[in-house]
Structure formats: C-alpha cells, structure tokens
Amino acid sequence: MKRVLATLLFGLLGVAAATAAAADPIPEGPRTAGLPEYQGAPASPQPVAAPLPPHHPHMAPNERSNLHVDAFQTDTNVLTGPLGREMSVISTFYSADCGSVTFDSKGRIVTICVGINRPTLKLLDPRTLDELASMDLPPRQPGAPSGPSVFQDFAGGGYFYLDDKDRAVVPTTTRHLYVVQVGETGFTLTQDVDLTGHVPQGDKIISALPDWSGLQWFASVNGVMGTVDLASGRIKSFDTGEPNGNSFAVDDEGGVYVVTDGALYRFDAGPDGAPQVTWREVYENTGTMKPGQTQKGSGTTPTVMDGGLVAITDNADPMNVVVYRRARTIDGPRKICQAPVFEKGKSATDNSLIAAGRSLVVENNYGYTGPQSTDQGATTTPGVERVDLNPSGYGCRTAWHSDETSPTVVPKLSLGNGLVYVYTKPPNQPGGGDGWYLTALDFRTGKTVYKRLTGEGLGFNNNYAPVTIGPDGTAYVGTLGGLVAVRDATAPPQGLGDSGVLMDGSLRPLLSLRVARHRSTRLVRASVGGHDAGLVESVDFKLGNRRLRSDSRKPFTRLIRVNRSRPQTIRVIAHLGDGTRKILKRTLRPRGG
Length: 593
Prior knowledge:
1 helix; Immunoglobulin-like; Methylamine Dehydrogenase, Chain H; 41 strands; 2 domains; globular; four-stranded antiparallel sheet; mainly beta
C-alpha cells in the first residue's frame, strides 16, 4: 500500500495522467484485511418537504449548475441519491481533484479537475466516467501565493458554473474569465475577459456567478468584488481589502452575498453596474486559521435561506452557526440566530452549510491540514450537526449531533429520500486502514443509515470536494485521484423527474422570465420560457404593482414600456394546468438616453 501511495503522490506532484477515452480506475494497493465494504442497511425513502430556491434564469437548472446545487448555495437536492441497495463504485484516474461536477443539457458531466500544475476542463460520460473531451486551462502561475498549501488553493478553476446555454464560465489562474461552449464533441472558447486591471498581480480569482439580471460577478482571494457586462465588456470593481477563501451566493432580489475574513457583506449592483455595499456585518472571529480552514475567518460560502435569511459559520471558539436577515434595510437587529457547534478547541469548517427550510447542517473539519492529516490511519475531529431556527423566528438550537468523521466534504441533502450524504474517514479502522466511505445520515435524527467503501488511500481523499447527486441518483465525489461514482444497482425513483418533485402538494416547475430591451425605444419584450413552459396555461404581466394584461395564448410574450431613468420590476404570474402558479420577476437597471 505504501508503494502505491508514493506512486500516486508523485503523480499528484506534477506527472499528468495519460488522456484516454476509457476511464482508468484510481489505483490502490491490496485492500487492508478486515476493512468493511458496507455497513448499515438500505434506506427507505422518507421525503422531506422544504421550500425550493427558484431557478436562476442565467444558470443551468438547479442541481446541474454549480458545486453548491443552486444560486442560493443551499447544497440541497430534490433528486433522490443512492439508497444503499447493492451498491457499486467506479472511478477515473487523473491525478487531479475533479471537485465541481455539473451536468449539461444532454446529461453529460462537465467538471474541472484541479492538479498541481494546472486545472483541466473535462467532459465525461456520467455512467462510465469515460472521457469525451478535455481542454487544458492556464497553468498555475510561477510565484503566485497558494495559501497554506497547494492542496488548499481553489482559485483559478476550483469554482465555476454552467450557464443556461451550456457554457462553462471559468475563472482562470491568469486572472481572466473564460466562457467556454460545451458542444456536441468538445469545448470551444467563445469569450476571454481580461480582469488583470482589477485583480492585480499576486491576487487570484476565487469564484464567479451571475446575478439575477445576468450581470457577471467575480470575487478575488484578496477581497476584490467585481462585475462584468459580458455584452459590452464593461468591468467595475470594489476592493474590500479583506481576504476571501470562499465562493458567494446570489438571490432573486438582486443581492450578492460574500463573507470575507472580516465580515459578511451584501452587495447590489449600482446604476452603472458597479458593486455597492448594501450592508456589512462583522462576525465573531478568533483571528486564527484553525487546522481545517484555509483562511483566518469564516470557512463557509454564504447560504441563502427561505424567509429572507442568509447563514454562515463564524470563526469563534467554539464556532457558531449564524443567521442574518438579508433585506436591504430592516428594523431591529440583523442577526437573528447564533448557535455554538462542536467542542471548544475542536471546531472548524471550510465547507458551506446545507439549508432546508428552517434547518441547517454543518460538519466539523477540525484537524485537516492536508492529505497527511488522514494518511497512515490518521483522521480528523468528528462531528456533523443540524441546527434549527426557533419557531418564533429568533434564536436557534442544535437538533442532533452525529459522531461521524467527515474531514473536508461539502455535504448534500436529498429531499427525495431524507438522507444527508457525507464522505467519511472513520478512526480506528482494522489494521490501521485508510478507507474512505460515502456515508448517509438520516436528516430527521442524525443516525447513520449506511456506509459504502469507495476506496483506500490517498487517491480517495476528497480534499474539500463535494458530494454531487446526479440526475439518475448516482453520487459523485471528486478526490485527489480524480472522480468516484457510487450508485445503487437499480437507480432510485426520481419523483416527477426533471419537472420537479411532489414534496408538499405543489409542483415546482422550471420556468424563467426573459427580458430583452429595444435599444432605440423604451420598450422591453418580456416572455416566459424554460423547461416547463409547456405546463403554463396563462400569464398575468405586471410592471411594479400595476397590472398590464393577461395572456392565455402561447408564446406568452408582452411588449412593455418602461422608464429608463429608474429601476423598475417586471413581474409575471404563471398559471399552470394543475391549478398552481409561479411568480417570476426581473428588475431592470436604469439606462441613459
């Protein structure tokens, strides 16, 4: 086993895996005697009812667009993941961590595999993990700071998203933003935006996402927040002066939420598209980088919650889950909840929270300082907890605690079956083994339902990569060796399929409001589209609170005269054939002329 680990580590330190059409499995030596392959029992689905975030009109459908599932960064899937029935495991070897897993409109995997030398964009078959196409991205830059270690540096490709036109939008190591079309047979670079004038040498881009109007935002590790109008090329930026090691969240009210080492921010775009600080909230912070973190602050990408809330963890000791009201202006305190999690001197996380309704799930990453932290029988401090908001709307409490040890994964919740998926490295394994497990917890109780061994050794260490639930219920985990897929022998039922899932008596369709401006007039064309537009029977159009007219003929389109000198919101109420309705809205920013 040690010889195999040494060979794999050598590969991770600079020798690229050979590109081949067929997937080569991640290597591992002879399995440690007595290491259990499966523990527990298959789950009986217990669906969880929870409000779902809306589909972002400029991103691929929820659960297919980015590593945190949706624009709200909830890490919550409608999809049913593996139930633990006659499970199988396959993998593909790249000597690079394929962390962010997305799915194009054909159901193919689009991922970026981050290696020591460079990140690489990959197109994979979701069933076999065979490689369909590959595109090298710019290499790591000489002399560029890497944070605590190269294994904790996610800038320049670790975060990307897939948009509504099957395009991967990717920050690069060269401080550019690539827009790459995913085609029938491969990738085509369609746009290259140079951000070096706003992200200086020595800084790096950590993440990029669009706001609800389609304006592109980006964040840097040194605290620059910026916007790009991809049509005109206009770039605006704001420097917080505070380091940032996380992605950010966007909501359907125009808010952009980022947490730096100093504070949690809400930004909104100004009239010229420039980032403007709407509010800033300082959180408790020891000022130290605990083992398990990649910076001296919150380790969580902000999570937008139902009910006008946003959640993070702070960097206190012990660490707290903290929830704030996210509206632009409020009466009273912005912070409504602060709950300590895990033990004093043993609490840290560098992964986003799961949000489902009024509940949050957090895992403990304390003790992870790199791959050596979980090698040769070692592991990290245990703990996964669920925190619930009080019914009054103020305050929160711990609902359950699990002693599972999940060193660094971004966990996922499946509403379809009520399971929380983590990726564990249990302590005290037989023979000092180094087995890694996909582990399912009961969302209601925190009890472990089952564990399935994925592999043993360094190549199966996920190193901060998430669990991703695929359209057919497969669970994918990026690892230092490449990508692992874990699935049941028979794919679990998926509710109502791509149109949504019947959770609480309502169908949640995938609809979007599209707005196109006429350059020479004050007219805009508003239309209802999206995957489930065929379910719509009639639409009510509004400008602000003023009702314009109803439309019961397809396509549902309306020309609307707007005031170009002030923000205005177009709203539509889409009435579906099952008697339900969905409200869509888009706020137009002022334009000159």
